[in-house]
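Subject: sequence -> structure tokens, single chain

Hey, anyone have a minute? Need the predicted structure for the following. Not urgent.
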Amino acid sequence: MLFNLLKNGMESMVNLPDEQRILTVGNRMSKDGREIEVFVIDQGGGIERGNTDRLFEPLFTTKVEGIGMGLTICRCIVESHDGKLSFSAVGKQGSKFQFTLPMVTC
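Reply:
Had a minute. Here:
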């Protein structure tokens, strides 16, 4: 699942000069310690506003060779573990995909 988000981020920057291809991956724990958030931020072309509501729909894609199942599957996996996957724009062109999962104590 994380691999898909990383791959999407890298693909979104393929037309940028090497020095501008910055992919940031990180995590943080919620203030109450009940959730962990993992995020992937790219500096790619961004997502058109008209497409942001459709990103997680099955068979929706903005890629020429895409089938539109990657983000749908990612969201299903995260939600099956009581988590949440979301998107937000970063700056004028970048994208941030993040997912939160509940912390489990053993």
